[in-house]
């Protein structure tokens, strides 16, 4: 039967879980209420999952209970599947295993502010209110990013106008969610991958100049002085030239008195990634040593398609384990997977998450549970 993932059966990873960890405190879950406002159609509905009747959890373990016990935010990025009545397992899995939630796209500029004259908070509110109802912390993602911008932003021609538009956007969003969202990715991916890792060309850099970053953080802080404000980026997980550039960026911000409280490391990886070799822990530690919080904010680990899947699943589990260990060793504030199931992932082909297409936990799930329980 399908109650245990075939790969799990073959891996010794499962044994300590089934033997050692039966967490009575695990939340029963409970479906999410449909949002008050209409939500976009749900093209990501997984027919295979939709036909599944409610099944007993494939594991007695609740990652959420383990994370709660360690004071770690353990999150997942969510999309419209959360409100799909044909796929209740999504909300059930989310509520059982995660104490934190990120909107995968709904809180981006184009998601909230496509029309310059008015914010559209309906879908994001539905996600946030559902999370709050389920006792989950929300990470706000993301206020200022070169991607996911509505066309009107590109029509702006002067520094003053774009600066004001950016400040208005940040102020409007942070103010709206002030009582429910206390962690924000304020600026996302501002450092480029080009040699020397200068700031990435964007309307903000091009028109406002490099101080758009400081100004975005100042606006967010003014709108909610209690919120934790993060800089977030990818390919910065280990010690490398790009993470050096982010380190210098945030060190400069701190020196200038800019209100920044944390750095997010996306950790979009594949099974070739060597967490120890890349010195992820040493990298996270140097940011902690600046007095900043750190989180792994968008973790997914793609399988390499040409290789046998069973070995890849074990390798994937090891990358998840090593990442979480590095995170816990520096007392990181959070660990967020970029999606719930492989089917819902933005990189579904790489099967990068800890639940498979039909919500069964993968070896990576067991690895996280073991690491949290250690
Ligand atoms: C991705 C979403 O997962 C996709 O659905 C969307 O089409 C594009 O954005 N870095 C980020 C995230 O900070 O916001 C991105 O999310 C993935 C890369």
For the largest beta-sheet, the strand count, sense and barrel status come to: 8 strands, parallel, barrel
Derived from helix and strand composition plus strand pairing, the structural class reads alpha/beta
Number of domains: 1
Give the rounded overall mean pLDDT. 89
Annotation, overall tally of beta strands: 9
Question: How large a portion of the residues is in β-strands, by DSSP E?
Answer: 5-15%
- Strand arrangement within the widest β-sheet reads 1-2-3-4-5-6-8-9
Examine the coordinates and then state which fold CATH places here, giving the name of the CATH topology: TIM Barrel
Rounded to the nearest angstrom, the distance between the terminal CA atoms is 30 Å
Shape-level CATH architecture: Alpha-Beta Barrel
Q: How many separate helices?
A: 15
Whole-angstrom Rg: 20 Å
**CATH structural class:** Alpha Beta
List SSEs in N-to-C order: HHHHEHEHHEHHEHHEHEEHEHEH
Based on CA inertia axes, which overall geometry fits? globular
Poorly predicted sequence stretches spanning 5 or more consecutive residues = 1-44, 51-57
CATH superfamily, please? Glycosidases
Keywords: Carbohydrate metabolism, Glycosidase, Hydrolase, Polysaccharide degradation, Signal, Xylan degradation
EC number: 3.2.1.8
Protein name: Beta-xylanase
InterPro entries: GH, GH10, GH10_dom
């Amino acid at each position: 039967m399908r109650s245990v993932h075939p790969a799990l059966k073959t891996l010794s990873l499962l044994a300590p879980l089934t033997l050692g960890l039966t967490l009575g405190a695990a939340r029963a879950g409970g479906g999410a209420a449909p949002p008050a406002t209409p939500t976009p159609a749900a093209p990501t509905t997984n027919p295979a999952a939709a036909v599944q009747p409610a099944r007993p959890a494939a594991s007695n373990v609740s990652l959420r209970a383990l994370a709660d016990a360690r004071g770690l935010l353990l999150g997942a990025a969510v999309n419209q599947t959360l409100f799909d009545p044909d796929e209740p397992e999504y909300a059930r899995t989310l509520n059982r295993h995660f104490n934190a939630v990120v909107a995968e796209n709904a809180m981006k500029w184009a998601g909230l502010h496509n029309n310059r004259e008015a914010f559209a908070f309906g879908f994001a509110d539905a996600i946030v209110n559902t999370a709050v109802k389920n006792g989950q912390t929300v990470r706000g993602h993301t206020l200022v990013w070169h991607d996911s911008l509505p066309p009107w932003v590109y029509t702006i021609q002067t520094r003053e106008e774009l600066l004001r538009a950016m400040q208005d956007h940040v102020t409007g969003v942070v103010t709206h969610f002030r009582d429910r969202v206390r962690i924000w990715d304020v600026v996302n991916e501002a450092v480029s991958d080009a040699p020397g890792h200068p700031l990435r060309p964007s309307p903000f850099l091009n028109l406002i100049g490099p101080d758009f970053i400081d100004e975005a953080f100042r606006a967010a802080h003014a709108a909610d002085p209690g919120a934790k404000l993060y800089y977030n980026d990818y390919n910065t997980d280990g010690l490398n030239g790009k993470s050096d550039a982010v380190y210098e960026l945030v060190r400069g911000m701190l020196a200038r008195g800019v209100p920044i409280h944390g750095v997010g490391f996306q950790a979009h990886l594949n099974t070739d990634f060597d967490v120890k070799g890349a010195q992820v822990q040493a990298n996270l530690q140097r940011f902690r040593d600046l007095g900043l919080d750190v989180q792994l904010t968008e973790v997914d680990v793609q399988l390499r398609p040409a290789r046998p899947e069973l070995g890849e699943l074990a390798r994937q589990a090891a990358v998840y384990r090593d990442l979480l260990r590095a995170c816990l060793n520096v007392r990181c504030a959070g660990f967020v997977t970029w999606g719930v199931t492989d089917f819902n992932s933005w990189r579904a082909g790489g099967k990068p998450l800890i639940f498979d297409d039909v919500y069964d936990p993968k070896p990576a799930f067991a690895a996280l549970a073991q690491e949290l329980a250690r």
